[in-house]
């Protein structure tokens, strides 16, 4: 008794104490729950004279013991346990409900454990049906019975029993029809009365839940579920129409019953999804029933801010789920001889058009319209997937008017909120609307796939209407939203528009240049700029419209929407690089002015430098030099000032990173050779791949190639970059940004970097010796891969390689017991070694590398919890093993370290690595089996060690795994499958059959 009082005091302390006290008390209570004595004291805690907190703790303790510790109950005590459970349910039959619910779950768990007795479900059910539980009312007994039955299938998924799982599933299937018949009879009886008493609602809700959880059991045909479907629809109809609601809102119990019935209907439909063709007639019948009963509810709720929005949502969800599961059956109605199927299809389309066009703005006035998006994608996919045939042509002709209408609806629904309505919106609403508009954009792409060129006609018509509306409401400053939405629609389909000079696009670009943006919200201008950028490729094919596009984007540089303008210019100068030449100088002047005025944000300035690089790449060399001096010099001048003042403050750091990012972006796009090469390639294509012929003695004499502008910049600024690097060597972010700029220079210069190669390599070398940042390793790896085989540069490449190895070995040695601290460094290091071992394995022959240390650390890093270094280490070991067969020194490493690699691999599979990641270790088995099959067979005998890698896997399972892996040298998929299943065995996890 003292023990019960102590537990009771602890429970009350937990609920009423502070957070620290709660943590300790919770830990102690968990230990108490797990003790064998919990079977005894849980009943003492569930006494009526105890507080509800203590009673609840007693109930969850019993629940926990039944779920986890059933083996502690002797067989002879089963009957006594059942009686105690039933008696306690009677005690709490009238509440507290929180305790009663747990007891119902516990009785369900007891039944699951007793399923080897074939009549256990019938016995318990009949006990409740015949009112054999004390003085509880018949209504309460039904309510409890439904709650118990509803939980049984769920508990089967989660509880471990002493009964084999196949036997449990067989018993559920055998009992399913008895349970379903009991539930449906109960529902029918209650709903057939003129009114349902309020005290019956909980029982009805539990019964409706029951149908949803049991429907997957019983091996019953879908057409045999008609009675169940009818009674669930009857429940929804009753809840909605039983009497007028003063405020239009369903009572909470009615709403819960209707929504539960809808969930169960969805479960019934989705349970037969894999049997699409088999039940086409049945599904059409069910859809007709859904349309007859549920569409009138949707019509009644077709308004803004309706009080039963969630019910409407769930009705739409049922329709969409049915369409997803049985699309072909319903879409047969597009063109069919069957009037019934045709009507179902037509009514479904009409209903989902109304869903798309739900009154109000998503998500503040309505939340249904987003549900229909999936349907418009499904319908077009179904039709377009048909083989070329007359039937497909007829289907397309039939659905095009529907999609034309949907396009106009989507344009209207995608209107942004006006300033006067924004007070109703919070940040979550705005984010939801942003996603909604993206969904509309994606849906418009589906519409284009159906409509093709007709899409432009529809949008052109919408453009005319939005301009008329703008003119009609000339005095208003909030009438811009429809025009903005129409432009957004054009923008959304830009990727689908081919090179043809479509007059609708010509009209769009004309309109975009004529809108008086200063009169309206700047979001309208932002969308116009984004749209011009989206049509860059089309403008490249129709360059006569380039001046107007440039004009609009340049105007945008000096506006609040400079972000969209810089994005548009980046796209336009990338897609129309040659065509922009006549406008290059004024465009460069505009860019220079925008950069000098200082109103651009950092990201906009960086992006604009990419545009500058694109333009500089195609103008005359003399002009390149002039504009480089005017536009790039300010970046280096500012960096020089910071270096001279030894300024390493945080504000200066931000400016240094900005300037380096601007230089990096310029380096990524400025390449005069690229444009020359592209011209040559185009000429070659035009001439059918033949070289041009010249008269004898008149072939042009090639002059000296001009120096790449990036090289000129680097030649002038190398000393500054070295000083900058020295000043900021302590700061990883600055050094990383500098290395990225050098990487961009290398990417564009390639061999042209040779005049400065040694200087840049020394700079990178100094970084590697002090602060081995990711991008320094990346650029060093690129240098090595590009120039190692050139004897002139090999000594420098060896120094880079050695510096990377030494720095990383030192870091790993210093952090040997806490390698996770340098996880990013390890990931980069082994990614580098994988590249080298794959593309330039000769490096490992020429350079004095401690292979054993390299492999030892890789093996240790495989066991890190971080996915990145683990995967990169596995990839390195795999590649090293494959390449070793051509290198005696590498062979020796593999042979000496192989058993340790295999042992560590098994430890990872057994539990160190995430179960979702174990398939990556198949690569190691395949590589070793391919190159060293006999050694693998020997090394895998480590599995014969008792309880290795875990105690859960049997010797027979180990033997089977070894045989399977050793015999498979080709199929990666098969070995991955073996590894995944072995990992499940090692962790005592059940592999679901679906896998």
Automatic annotation (TrEMBL):
Q: Which residues form the Importin N-terminal domain?
A: 25-91
UniProt xrefs under InterPro entries: ARM-like, ARM-type_fold, Importin-beta_N, Importin_beta-like_NTR, Importin_rep_1, Importin_rep_3
Query: What subcellular compartments does it reside in?
Result: Nucleus
Superkingdom classification of source: Eukaryota
Where is it mostly found?
Answer: nucleus
Key words, A-Z? Nucleus, Transport
* One annotated Gene Ontology cellular component of this protein: nucleus
Q: Name one GO molecular function term.
A: small GTPase binding
SMART domains (UniProt xref): IBN_N
One GO term (biological process): protein import into nucleus
- Pfam families reported for this sequence: IBN_N, Importin_rep, Importin_rep_3
Similarity-based family: Belongs to the importin beta family.
Tell me the subunit arrangement: Interacts with UBC9, RAN, RBM8A, eIF-1A and PAX6.
Q: Return the protein name.
A: Importin N-terminal domain-containing protein
